[in-house]
Amino acid sequence: MLDVKNSLSLLLFLIFIISYLGKLIILKKKHKIQANVLTKGKTDLQIRRSEVFVKFTTFIWGVMWFLLSILEPMIAHWFVPIVENAYLSSLGILTMALGLAIFIVAMISMKTSWRVGIDKQTQSSLVTEGIYKFTRNPAFLGFDLMFIGLFVTYPNILTLGIAVLNILAIHYLILQEEEHLKTTFHEDYLKYFGSTRRYFIF
Fold this sequence. Notes:
Low-confidence stretches: none
Structural class: mainly alpha
Largest sheet: none
Number of strands: 0
């Protein structure tokens, strides 16, 4: 029987998976768009490296999120907590929930322009409205909050390492995506780049 913390963590994980896969399916079935282009058809070595890095680190994060949610009592002895505090766990759940909400809003706001990875094959539009008025990368910001939230919910060395690696991987991908958007949208993106923060406050 899962306790409240693990039940909420599992619920958030399932919402994330359903919303993520649901968006991919809708784009493919309704709009004939292959939105998941991560590591696919890339000739630029830097982009390919960044996408492989993201694919690997996010997979590890997802697996750990799921396993900790359903098996924490059985595997807790393998992962010694850095600190144990019920309030801290609640803060972690809230942080994951906030990150998930931002991620979902970002997906919805992108409409048919949403992609997983850098798409050099199909033309999309530059989205600057809604949540994108406040940050150029709301989906990635949502991911970062979920990475941090997992660590705060289950504070051990492994989840700390996973959070740090994923944040670095996402940041590296953002840098590659910015260069792609500059060459794709030119002055429109440069104007947006100059007026809107990368991560909300910086």
